[in-house]
Specification:
Length: about 600
Amino acid sequence: MIVCIAEKPSVAKEIAEVLGARNKCDGFFEGNGYQVTWTFGHLCTLKEPGDYTPMWQRWSLGSLPMVPPRFGIKLIDDKGIEKQFAVIEKLMQNADEIINCGDAGQEGELIQRWVIQKTQAKCPVKRLWVSSLTEEAMREGFATLKDQSEYQSLYEAGLSRAIGDWLLGMNATRLYTLKYGKNKQVLSIGRVQTPTLALVVKRQQEIENFVPKQYWELKTTYRDTQFSAAKGKFESIEEAQEALQSITGQPFVVTDIAAKNGTELPPRLYDLTSLQVDCNKKFGLSAEVTLQTIQSLYEKKLTTYPRVDTTFLSDDIYPKCPNILKGLRDYQQLTAPLTGKPLPKSKKVFDNKKVTDHHAIIPTGVHPQGLTELEKKVYNLIALHFIAVFYPDCKFRTTTVQGESGGVPFKTTGKEITDAGWKVVFAAETSDEKDENEKTLPHFTKGEEGPHTPDLAEKWTSPPKPYTEATLLRAMETAGKFVDNEELRDAMKENGIGRPSTRANIIETLFKRNYMRREKKNIVPTQTGTELIGIIRNELLKSAELTGQWEKKLRDIEKRQYEAKGFIEELKLMLVKIVNDVLGDNSTINN
């Protein structure tokens, strides 16, 4: 008998249907030579400190750092989990072969491997690896099963992450709570959680410590068009008034006109982070709600695997794209111009080198029915982005007009769309969000002149903006560096803090622990969160950059370019340093 194990009952049901295992039993499906069972996400976890030695049961500074000689796993203490595990254990101990059908990612690999290990099954284990839950994708996946050993490095990366989080979380939380918590509160420290909170606290301190500076802007209106002084900001009122005086009563002269043609590429396909960013900006959705929604769309077979960090597709997806577009029946008006001719194949979309385990999030082509309003919104974004990448570039003309008055140079810029290209796909979505630079200038002639209306405005510099979930997700992706350029951002993803699949949970955890709170769309630290970051003198724990370097090493473990043992040893050495530093510190946390 072949035993398949999925990550949740709904997925097991789909797999059972494909395999013909239609007989429903208690905790599994059976038929056609298969038994299909399931977990409920994590059934196992790393052992607690007290499971290793009674000495670690009690919190004490003298027992730190706690480093087990060998990490062990145990079942999560829950009656439902214990019952389901008993079913799995019995099936696996009698199996001829096991097929791991967990989520095709690092976390999914870890969840299922721990369960299989815990059952002490001795038979061969194969791996199902699919990017969507459609029947076609599943049949293809079962036809190309691989031996579990081919995913060993993925498991080692997941295990290293779990061990690293245990080492730092268990030890640093006890350390800081006992040293600074005054027996009143648990001070929770985490490998990703703490540097994320540090980003928010640092931004809030920058806002509070910001000293606004006064400046002046000189503009003038000529032929209903506003021109700005080329100098930009005037930092002294005397200089600004002198410029204003010199142009008052003087004619405005157009000195130069330059037009430049440009193109704008279609927006990239979505990875999980960019989808969470857009859903936060457009609909005010939290990262957690977006993840739940896209996970639901995946399980309904409408979109591909969501926990991805690439915006590219592999070459083997290209031949499937016409059928996917054909399946988008609600978007026929937009897909019609693409039918009947070969689809363009751009390196900006299809690039095997930019795809590892999974490709970007795209529709599967299955017709959506019975969606919630939230699911419709998220699905619509994914569908429109997929359609848009096959449309031509948007073409525009940028016109810069320069002028002068009384010896003071001015300029203005206008942008005119000459060929909308892919922008027609988003026309309905962006009708109220016209690009602020998208203004058509009147026809000017070099040398023309006439009266104008000057205006001198007093301005003040603005403080940095608080993080929103969208900007915090981007900061986590780039380890706190502000990066607007998409290609540069791609290069930095390997050093981001957390994984796309865990960032939403990290943010929610910080809210639940009362270290941060929401103020409308903004995220601000609480007094507890600010004090916690203040008391952590050790930069290793707060550094987004260092955590990003650890993240890179975890990815390198996955790629077989770094040893898991080396990563754990580094963390152990760091732990000893942190414990010694904190024990030697005489500060206290303020209340």
